[in-house]
Amino acid sequence: MKDIIKNTQNAQRDVFRAFLVEKADYEGIEEIPCIRTSSLVPTRVILFSKALKTTDYDQWVVFYEHDEKFVRLWNTPRKYLSILKKFRGVITPDFSLYRNMPLVMQKWSTYQGKAIGVWLQNEGIEVIPNVRFADERSYQFCFDGVEKNSTVAIGTYGCIKKIIDRNYFEKGLAKMVEQLQPHTIIVYGAAPDYIFGKYKKMGIHIIQFDSDFAIVHKVVSA
């Protein structure tokens, strides 16, 4: 990685976005960049696409939306740095890991989120790592780069409605808790007791935020 960085000082030629990980440490055979987890936790969150339009900066930016809504941050990260610095913190980008994706693409998605997180952190932004898993194959790399015994974030929206998706989610969540032993889990989306209750009993602090879809549905139903 250092050789790549030396040869790509010109940002316009840096197709690997090597500048994102200039100061990074790595974990695992895939060399996933390591996040130093913030000791702070969010009380409010806002999606990246909405964060670009708001002046309410007393919240954390999250990326639990379609990749097309935030891939611009990967393509031109410096363009959005000054905006993200205005907020309380950032939960790292949630690039998709679908079970039917080729494994190499799942690894790339994991790397992208952590690389951006490390860079934002080195630019002085409070960062909490998002953890995204697919099936058992992803367990070999998806938890890399995340501090143990700290705070992690996950998204449940679209992951627990169908039984097959819920089964995979529950397995991945159990594996995440086993490997990372987090003291706090931030959940974007529903956090039903039939999934998270046992972790609460273990003493893990669960902080839940409704998805934008759920918030809009509540307003419409009111």
Structure commentary:
This protein is α/β, with parallel strands linked by helices and 222 residues long. It has one domain. It is 36% helix and 14% strand. The chain has eight helices and nine strands. It has helices at 2-6, 48-51, 71-75, 77-84, 103-122, 163-180, 193-201, 212-221, and strands at 26-27, 32-33, 45-47, 60-62, 89-91, 127-128, 151-155, 184-188, 205-209. Strands 3-4-5-6 form a four-stranded parallel beta sheet. Strands 7-8-9 form a three-stranded parallel beta sheet, with helices on one face. Helix 6 links the parallel strand 7 (151-155) and strand 8. The model is unreliable at 4-9 (pLDDT under 50).
- Give the overall shape, derived from the CA principal axes: globular
Q: What's the story with the biggest beta sheet?
A: 4 strands, parallel
Cα-based radius of gyration, to the nearest Å = 17 Å
Output the number of helix runs: 8
Order of helices and strands: HEEEHEHHEHEEHEHEH
Q: Can you tell me the residue ranges where pLDDT is under 50 for at least 5 consecutive residues?
A: 4-9
Helix and strand layout, with pairings?
Blueprint: H1 2-6, E1 26-27, E2 32-33, E3 45-47, H2 48-51, E4 60-62, H3 71-75, H4 77-84, E5 89-91, H5 103-122, E6 127-128, E7 151-155, H6 163-180, E8 184-188, H7 193-201, E9 205-209, H8 212-221
Parallel strand pairs: 3-4, 4-5, 5-6, 7-8, 8-9
Antiparallel strand pairs: 1-2
